[in-house]
Every structure is written in C-alpha cells, then in structure tokens.
Specification:
The protein is an alpha/beta fold and 335 residues long. The protein folds into 2 domains: 4-88, Arc Repressor Mutant, subunit A (Orthogonal Bundle), CATH 1.10.10; 144-274 and 295-331, Vaccinia Virus protein VP39 (Rossmann fold), CATH 3.40.50.150. It has helices spanning 4-24, 27-32, 38-45, 49-61, 80-83, 92-105, 108-115, 117-121, 127-131, 135-160, 177-185, 200-209, 246-259, 281-293, 301-310; strands at residues 66-67, 73-74, 167-171, 190-195, 216-220, 232-238, 260-270, 272-273, 299-300, 314-319, 326-331. Strands 5-4-3-6-7-11-10 form a 7-stranded mixed beta sheet, with helices on both faces. Helix 3 packs across helix 4, helix 6 (92-105) crosses helix 10 and helix 10 runs parallel beside helix 11. The termini are far apart. The structure holds S-adenosylmethionine.
C-alpha cells in the first residue's frame, strides 16, 4: 500500500469529483434526511445503483460518509452542515467551482511552468471575463463566494466591531454575504456593494431574500477604470487582494485611502498563510488556484499589514476567525 500522503495526493482527484457528483445529484441531501443503503438512495433519486454504490464507497474511504452494520450510509455529524444542501456551511457551489472552474483551467500549469504566467496569460481573456462569461458560470461563482463567505461573515462582523460605523462600502462585495451579515448585526448601518455590473442581479436577489431594500445599495463600477472608490467610513475588501499582484493591491489600497473618511478604517478579509508559508493546506492549494484563475496570491498577515501601512493606514491589527477567512484592519488617522 502507498504511504498515506501519496494515496491522498494520487487519488484525491477522485474525491473532488465524487464530492461534487454526490452534491449535484442530491445524494448528501438524501442521506441528511436519514440513513439509507446505496440501492435505496439510487431508487429514491433515480440514479444508477452500481455507479452510485461505487461513488459511496469512495466517499466512505475518504471518510466523507459513514456506513452502519446494515449497509446504510449516513453523514458524519461534524460534516453534515457542509454536505447537506440545507446546512449553513454547505460547500456544494464551491465543489462545483473546483470541478467546473478551477480544474478546467489547471491544464495551463504545464505552460506556466515552462513559459511563465505572463507569457501564457498575454493571449488569454482577463480572469473575470472568463468567470462571468455565461449566466451559468456567473451564478456558480457567486454562489461559491456566498457559500465560503456567508457563514464566517457573522464572525468577521463581530471581530470588526462595526458599532460606530455609518456607511460600509464592500469593494468587490459580490452578492453581498458580508454586507448582509453586517446589516443584520447593526440596524443603524447602511451598506453599498461596489462591484462589476454583472453582479447586480445576484445582489438584488439576496437584498430581497433578506429584506434589506433601502439599506443595501449596489454601485456598479470597475475599480481599475474608476478614478475613485465610493466614499465611506469603512471600506471592505473580502478575497479581493488575493486576486491581484502587490502593485495592483497598492493601487487599490491607495484608492481606498482616498475614499476613506478620517478616522475610518479598511477591512481586509482573506485566507492567511502561516509565517513561513507551511500552510494551512487550503491556503497553499488556493494560492496555486489564485495563480491559475486570477493574477494574485495568498499572503501572510504581516504582508497584508505592510500593504496597508504603505497605503497610509495605521494601527493595523490581525483578528483571526475560527474559519479560513480572517481580518486585517487598518485605520486612517485623523489629520
Ligand atoms: C473572489 S471574489 C470575492 C467576493 C467577496 N468579496 C467575498 O469576500 O467573497 C472577487 C470579487 O471582485 C469583483 N471584481 C473583480 N474585478 C473587479 C473590478 N475590476 N471592479 C470591481 N469589482 C471587481 C468580482 O466581481 C467579485 O465579486
């Protein structure tokens, strides 16, 4: 038998695809409702029983489902919130994005290794032109962002301590996961998502779903073409700086500094590499994914604090959540 790290690396390709298939075809949702055999699950969902049983055996081997002595499969208690479609940490759209978005672009790694990223990307469309190429890819991406963003946002809002903030502008705020959490926690707050025009309809859906009309606005715009960002006493950048190079981050944070009220603050919410960059594993993987899907990389807390300081923000603090997305805050001092 291969050593465990090699087994995981070699066969992990199957785990990602099987995870996505089981989510897409409602297998996890079915098992969340109660334990069932492979045959019962296949019959209930109209799936091929032989194929489904093989999928379930892979999921069991990767410890993503468990099986009782009557051959009935179920979800491990600690994984149910992530696997069940109704769970508050459901990762289905993220697994779809890994298979349909990220994996589809991984083929470029070979060319990146031999020719370098710049030379290869010169002939390609810009990252968000690819991501927003069709309504399907747009929804899949924005759903994935919501899924990896909404649950942790409540914690990030608490860490950010927004009590004195009047107007939050979420730069590249997508369909509004962070703004929705902030507005629910702070009844006196108003918020604006500033993002590409394609995002508008998806933000409107969430605005209606959470009854936030009048408090959550959309400002369509392109943060590269626009000379200035909308003004606010709090500007947020969630998973934005990791899409771009250091120089581009400097440009965005300089605009944020000009748009920020005196005494206001900027929130950078990101995965963080450990000092020494030995992990966490998800950050190491997504750092490569940023290389393939965008122009960015993941950074240590210290690197974000340095970027904030260079842009003129002071009193930088790192506030870690219990999940993958953390907060680095910088303040614009009063003159
Ligand atoms: C990785 S997503 C992050 C979404 C969200 N802030 C979060 O924390 O999950 C990057 C966001 O930046 C937006 N974006 C990309 N390029 C942009 C541009 N030039 N101007 C404004 N927004 C942009 C995308 O539409 C997308 O919503």
């Amino acid at each position: 038998m291969l050593p465990r790290p090699l087994t995981n690396a070699l066969y992990g390709l199957y785990a990602t695809h099987v995870l996505h298939m089981a989510d897409r075809h409602g297998v996890f949702a079915h098992l969340a409702a109660g334990p069932a055999t492979a045959a019962e699950t296949a019959a209930a969902l109209g799936l091929d029983p032989d194929t489904l049983e093989r999928l379930l055996l892979v999921l069991e081997a990767f410890e993503l489902v468990e099986r009782d002595d009557r051959n009935r499969y179920g979800l491990p208690t600690e994984l149910a919130p992530y696997l069940d479609r109704g769970g508050d940490r459901h990762i289905g759209a993220m697994s779809a994005h890994m298979v349909n978005g990220a994996a589809a672009q991984l083929g470029r790694l070979d060319a990146y290794l031999t020719r370098g990223k710049a030379g290869v990307d010169a002939d390609l469309p810009a990252p968000f032109d690819v991501i927003y190429a069709t309504p399907e890819s747009t929804r899949e991406f924005l759903d994935a962002m919501w899924q990896i963003g909404f649950d942790v946002s409540a914690e990030l809002v608490r860490l950010a301590d927004l009590g004195g903030v009047r107007h939050l502008v979420d730069v590249g705020g997508a369909s509004g996961a962070f703004c929705v959490s902030a507005l629910r926690a702070h009844p006196g707050l108003a918020a604006t998502v500033y993002d590409l025009p394609q995002v508008g309809p998806y933000l409107a859906e969430r605005t209606e779903e959470y009854g936030l009309a009048g408090r959550l606005e959309f400002a369509p715009g392109d943060f590269f073409r626009a000379a200035e960002l909308p003004e606010a006493d709090c500007l947020a950048f969630g998973y934005i700086l990791s899409d771009w190079t250091d120089d581009t981050c400097r440009e965005l944070l300089a605009k944020a500094h000009r748009a920020c009220a005196d005494g206001g603050r900027v929130l950078v919410m990101e995965r963080l590499f450990d000092e020494g960059r030995r992990g966490p594993l998800a950050t190491s993987v997504m750092n490569l994914s940023m290389h393939v899907e965008t122009e960015g990389r993941h950074r240590t807390a210290g690197e974000y604090a340095d970027l904030l300081s260079e842009a003129g923000f002071g009193d930088c603090r790192v506030l870690r959540s219990s999940q993958d997305k953390h907060l680095v805050v910088g303040y614009k001092t009063r003159p």
